[in-house]
Amino acid sequence: SAEESKYWDGTLQQSNLRFLHSQQLGGWDVVIGGNLLGDDGFKGPEIYQDSVGGALVPIDTASMNYNPFNVNRFGANSQGRFNVNLRRRDTGIEGLKFGLNTNWQFGESLNTLIWERAYDGLYGSTDGAATRTRQLVGTVDPYIEYLSPRGTQHSFRNRWQHLNNDNDNGQSNTSNVFYSEYQVQQRGDVWGMDGLVLTAGAVQQLTRGTAELYNGGNPEGINTATNRSAYLQIDQKAGKRLNLSAGTRYEHFSINDSTAAKPVFRAGLNFQAAEASWFRASVGQGFRFPTIAEKFIRTGLGPLQVYPNNELRPETAINIEAGFKQGLRVGGFQGFLDVAGFYQEYDNFIEFTFGQWGNPLTDALAGNGFRSLNTGSSRVTGWETSLMGRATWGETTLDVLAGYTYTNPVSLTPDYLYSVITNAAGDTIGGASYNNTSLDTTGQVLKYRSQDLVRFDAELRRGPWFIGASARYQSALQNIDAAWLLFEQLGVVDWGLETWLADNPKLPWIWDFRAGINLSDHHKMSLVVSNLTNAEYSIRPLAIESPRLVNLVYTYELK
Question: 174 with 163: CB under 8 angstroms?
Fold first, then answer.
C-alpha cells in the first residue's frame, strides 16, 4: 500500500517558472520564451549503504535545504528550456515570408520503469532498473514561404534536431535528425476549375545515431535511417455541400542495409447535410517501417532484458472511418455533438513481446525479455463520441467537453507462431504465439490495450473568477504477457504483481480541480489539483501512477 511503501519523510515539491515575450520589431515578429522546472517527482529517494553500520538508508531530503533541482529521487526531473521564434513579414518582395524557430532544453532526471514491490515498494525501484540521464535536446527550424501572383503557394520547411542522452547505465545515445519538405499548392480557378486545390510535395529525413543502447546492428551502435517520400493530393468542392479528397504518397525507407518502399493511397469526403449537420468518411492505407530502436536495441533494466530483431518486416494497414457532426442550440447552450466509427486492419503487426530471446545460460532471467516481433494480423474496431460547447447565462459561462471511446483490438492470427523452436532435424516443435504468451485470451484482445476511455471537463466563469473540474476513466488492461506472473510464481522475482492485479481488478476515476481569479489585467492566481482524491492506481504493470499534486500558480503579464 502507499503508507507501507513510503520510506521517506517530508512532502515532495515541484517548482516551475515560465516566461513568454512577443513583440513586433520593424518587419520582424519576435517571440522569446523559457521555462525552469524542478520536480521531486512522486517516488522515493535513492538508497545508499551507510558507511558506518552498513545499513541501507534512503537519502533524506527532508533533512536538507530544499533544492528544486536535486534529482536524487526516482521520477525526479530538473530542466531548463529556452525558445526563440523569428518571422520576417516585410521582406520587400510581395508574398515572401521567412523565419526561424529554435528550441533548446537541458535537464537531468532519474527514472525507473519497474517498482520494487507492490506491498512495500510501490515508490521504489527494482535494483538496476533506474536510469540517471543528463539530456540536451534542441531543434532549429528554418522555413520560407512564397505566394505567387497567380496564387501558387510554395513552402520549404526544414528541421535539425539534436539529442544527447548521457545515461549512467551503459544506455547513452546521441542522434541528429535532418528533415526537409518542399510543398506547392495551387488553386484550380487559375485554370477555370473552381473548387479545385492541388497539393504536391517531397520529403526527406535523415537520422544518424550513435548509441550504446542500439548496438544490435553493429558493436559500435552506429545506425543511419532515411525516409524519402513524394505525395500528391487533390481536393475538389462539388457544389455547395460536398467536398471530395484523394491522394497518394510513395514512401521509401532504409535503415543501414535494410530497405523497403511502397505507395499508399487515401480518399475521403465531407458532406453538409443541413445547416449544422456534416457527414464524413475516409479510407486510407498505412505503411510503417521498423524504427532503429525496434530493430537494434539491446539493453537491460535490472533483471529485465530487451533484445534486438534485425529481421523485422514493415507493417501495413488499412484504415476506414465514418462520422457525423451535429451542431446544437438548446436555450443558452451552443455546441457540437460528434459520433464516429472506425475500422483498422494490420498485417505484419509489430508488437513488443515477452519471451526467451537470449542465451538461457548467460543472460539474466534465463534469456527472457522483450523483443519487437511481427505477430501476424490484427484488427481494431470501435467508435467514439464527443460533446463540446458553451452555456451562457448573462455574465456567467459554462464550457463543457465530454467524450467516450470504445476500441476492440483483437488478434486475427492467435495461433500464428511468430517465434519458432525447431529440433535437430529442422522440424518445428514449438514456439511463441498470441495464445500461449497471453494472460487472458478472452475475445483475443491484444496485450496492453485499454478498451474504454471516458473523459470530461467543465469550467464555470463569472467576472474575474473561474472554477473547473475534469475527470477521466479507462478500463484496466485485460491482457498482458503471462510471463510477468510466471516468473513470480517460480520465485525468480518478487514484484507482487499477481497480488496487485487480484486486489485492483479495476481502475479508479481520476478527478482534477482548478480555480482562480484574474486580480487585474496583469495579475492572475490559480490553484490546480491533480488526482484530487489521491487515488492509488497502476495503468501499466509494475508502474505506479502519480498521487495528488497541488500547484499554486501566479501569472504576471506585461502589456
Answer: yes
